[in-house]
Amino acid sequence: MNASRRAAPRGTTSVQPARRIAYDVLRAVSESDAYANLLLPTAIADAGLSGQDAGLATELTYGTLRRRGTYDAIIRHASGRDIAEIDPAVLDALRLGAHQLLATRVAPHAAVNESVALVSAGQGRGAAGFANAVLRRIGRDPADTWQTRIEDGARSDDERLALRTAHPVWVIRAMRRALAAEGRADELDALLAADNVSPEVTLVALPGLASRGEPARPYAPTAFGSPAGDPRQVTGSSRGTVRVQDEGSQLVALALAAAAPVRAGERWLDLCAGPGGKTALLAALADRDGARVEANEVVPARAGLVRNALRPLPVEVPVHVADGREFAAQHASSFDRILVDAPCTGLGALRRRPEARWRKSPADVAELVELQTELLDAAVSALAPGGIVAYATCSPHLAETAGVVSEVLRRRDDLIELDARAVLTEVSVSPIDLAGEGVGAQLWPHRHGTDAMYLALLQRGPHNGADT
Hints:
The protein is an alpha/beta fold and 468 residues long. It has 2 domains: 132 residues, NusB-like (N-utilizing Substance Protein B Homolog, Chain A); 216 residues, 3-Layer(aba) Sandwich (Rossmann fold). The protein is built from 21 helices and 11 strands. The strands form 2 sheets. Strands 4, 5, 6, 7, 8, 9, 10 and 11 form an 8-stranded mixed sheet that branches. Strands 2-1-3 form a 3-stranded antiparallel sheet, with no helix packed on it. The two termini are 47 Å apart.
């Protein structure tokens, strides 16, 4: 759904464009699981918003998505209704209004009146009257009063923390376990706070095609910050050789390329390539070192994004469209290096995709772990003897990280786990703090300023082993 091109209902002409765009993006996220970080920039550009209005639309969208669970608790209290009983379109308008009333400097009358106008246009006078009453009730008390009120109704310390930090309880517990595995459970508050801060824009300069600008990022030699926070002034003139990419993602690709000396003619594979950022970086690194890259993506639309990401490169990268497990099975012992950036809960990217915390549940983890394990196991079979697979997830959940790696190591007798921490230390341009036991590496937003990327490096032995 393109929020900026959707026709505005009759009667919404008085709604400020920034609020209209924020609301439309919220509806797209709720209705069709759209990603706000993909939809919002296009909506802003299509609407031609000024810098100030673009900033407002961004704050309203991300702020509302980020604190949705907290606002739902406040709306439930103020309305006397369970959230499930409120029309979804009305609920999104109430969330948007609550965010303006409790977390911004927007004038209360504007926050209420324009949120009510959005409801009136789409759901009619009755719903508008309900929205007006709820928002005026919310607006009578300051944010800290509401926070105390909803926390007083919490049934546990974790539920109280969930309401305070706008994270589901199960996510808080998963984060705590992951930090405790490193002996750093005391960093939980810092991690949850980091998830609620908009990240700085990080750029990647493709090796051999562009030079890193300023300010340089601390770890990846390809990473630098975006001047004034707006990447378009840099990316627009680079013809695709500089693009937005989290530093953690860059480190994953750099680590695979540096895990062992590259022999000319090596064949590399990005097994789960969409949307193509890591593929492009791998392709640039491979071209520099005399190797060649192929990519695979199961979703055709995302395969198209991979092709677009690769277009600026001077080398041809075949992009296949297939289930990664089936593709790997058809290419046994064929690749020298494979990246498995597996589908995951996305809990490591809550700064950039705040809605992800509300989309997943513990039940989703088991299904994803099964897929992740199958993809990694299949990728090992596609490795040539001596080949290396990098297993990466944008999640710190132990079941998705060390748990998957342990299971694949248990299944196979032909694998050696390499020291991913040592490799990351080698590629980093400054000391990098990697804690815990074992040799897998976990990055953190509060500690490294990156997404919470996990990396394991597995090498297939010289003899083709079989599943045990």
